[in-house]
Amino acid sequence: MSPGQQAQPKLPIPGVKNLIAVGSGKGGVGKTTVAVNIAIALARLGFRTGLLDADVYGPNVPLMMGMNQTPTAVGERIQPLENYGVKLMSMGFLSPGDKPLVWRGPMLHSVVQQFLRGVDWGDLDYLVIDLPPGTGDVQLSLIQTAPVTGAVVVTTPSDVSLEDARKAVRMFEQVKVPILGIIENMSWLQCPHCDERIDVFSTGGGRRMAKDMGAKFLGALPLSPQVRIGGDTGHPVATFGPEDKRGADFYAIAKLVVEGAAEASSVAGPTMTVSD
Ligand SMILES: Nc1ncnc2c1ncn2[C@@H]1O[C@H](COP(=O)(O)OP(=O)(O)O)[C@@H](O)[C@H]1O
Ligand SMILES: [Mg+2]
């Protein structure tokens, strides 16, 4: 599929009120970290939340969410797993280990559709979708067939990351998915010895890019060893709650996502409802 192709009807996911896509131009910029922590924050704030790992080639959600069980099926419907109050589905649960998956476009398309519509998500306020990096088949399959409420684009402040993030923003714009905002991740490092701020990947580019592209800036996140450790140990910083300094930034961003999603839905009008 290409962005220029005839649009297919965007059928709602029964029971799911808001679909939030988290995308980026490049890999390694912190997309999964942001998706996981925002999902946990939304759940802790009282919203019914799911997290769909659409990065079928590099599914990191199981590791970051500390889950590695195999989901069961009831009838035809796959039952999502759940941790930290978030319902979860990932290719990593179905094909664990380090065997690479080799799939072509049409198969990717059907996996994405299966994850969206063949999983028993139940009633959700937010389904957060962790997209693979870039602007490929998975992204297009998803945003052309599901009514994505809005997209969050993650970038680092380096020029190479920003260049690719702009493409991701353009991709969403082309298929009429509202941009909820830009996050600048790995924005700076606070030296633990002298407290000096080191701009490892430059700084401020995310904010400038948001301004240039008419998008909201959702915030800058510093490089933090605790964020990395949280991801690697399956205990993301947002699990420490909104009052804890280690994960507070993600709660601030989650609240902006809630606001942005409400604005985007009111512009788009009431969503169609279909029964199962
Ligand atoms: N703000 C941050 N501070 C420290 N480490 C981070 C931060 N954001 C992400 N990381 C780490 O960087 C690596 C890549 O992040 P990840 O979320 O997997 O990126 P992506 O999904 O874009 O490929 C992971 O090891 C993650 O823990
Ligand atoms: Mg990722």
Which spans have pLDDT < 50 for at least 5 consecutive residues? 272-276
Q: How do the helices and strands follow one another from N- to C-terminus?
A: EHEHEEEEHHEHEHEEEHEHH
Mean pLDDT score, rounded? 90
User: What's the number of extended β-strand segments?
Assistant: 12
**Strand arrangement, largest sheet?**
5-6-2-7-1-8-9-12
Give the termini separation. 27 Å
**Heteromolecules bound:** adenosine-5'-diphosphate, magnesium ion
Helical region count?
9
Write down the overall geometry.
globular
How many strands, what sense, and barrel or not for the largest sheet? 8 strands, mixed
Percent range of helical residues: 25-40%
The oligomeric status of these chains comes to single chain
Structural class: alpha/beta
Cα gyration radius (Å):
18 Å
Strand content: 15-25%
3D structure, described in words:
This protein has 276 residues and is of the alpha/beta class. Helices cover 36% and strands 19% of the residues. The protein has nine helices and twelve strands. The chain has helices at 31-44, 61-65, 91-94, 105-117, 137-145, 159-174, 205-212, 225-232, 248-268; strands at 16-24, 49-53, 73-74, 77-78, 81-83, 86-90, 124-130, 150-155, 179-184, 189-190, 197-198, 217-220. The strands form three sheets. It has an eight-stranded mixed sheet with strand order 5-6-2-7-1-8-9-12, with helices on both faces. Strands 3-4 form a two-stranded antiparallel ribbon. Helix 1 (31-44) packs across helix 9. The radius of gyration is 18 Å and the shape is globular. 47% of the residues are buried. Residues 272-276 have low confidence and may be disordered. The site of adenosine-5'-diphosphate has 17 residues, from helix 1 and helix 8.
